[in-house]
Each structure stands twice: as structure tokens, then as C-alpha cells.
Specification:
Radius of gyration: 15 Å
Number of domains: 1
Helix content: 10-25%
Largest sheet: 4 strands, mixed
Strand order of the largest sheet: 1-3-6-7
Order of helices and strands: EEHHEEEEE
Distance between the termini: 26 Å
Amino acid sequence: MIFYPLNHRLPRAIADRYRREHIHHLIARARQTGCWIVSSDVVADDATHLGYGCTAIVDPTGTVLARVDELATGVVTGMLPHAQRARG
């Protein structure tokens, strides 16, 4: 599992340009590493900066299992599958 703290409080024009890219990067990291990705991000909306927030849980296949809505504060939770022990 990779815990992925973010701080995407960006100048407004840049935030809009990369708005949809953040979740795609998390999905790519999950697939690339074969790990669960748990991200947390800031939400900001002021005169000069914007942070849509990209708080999510992504499984190793790249499926987004939980996500906080954009521009909303919140918490994501999920249950990990039980790992089976190797027998031998």
C-alpha cells in the first residue's frame, strides 16, 4: 500500500488544466506498482488558487474504489481483501 499525500492547491489556470489528470496519475501508479494507492488532497478555492481535491482509494488494478467529490472535504474508507498466507 502506498499512502500518497497531495497538495494540489495550484494557481487557478493550472488547476483547471490538470483537474482530471490527478486521478489518472493515481490509477497509473497503482497499475505500475501493483499496490493499493490511498491519496489525500487539499481543497482550496480563493481568489488566486484552486484545489479540487483528489482524495481516493485505488486498487492494484487501477479501479477507483472510493473518492471524495471534487471541492468537498471528506474521508474515504475501504476494506482490503484478506491476504492468504503461503502454505508449505
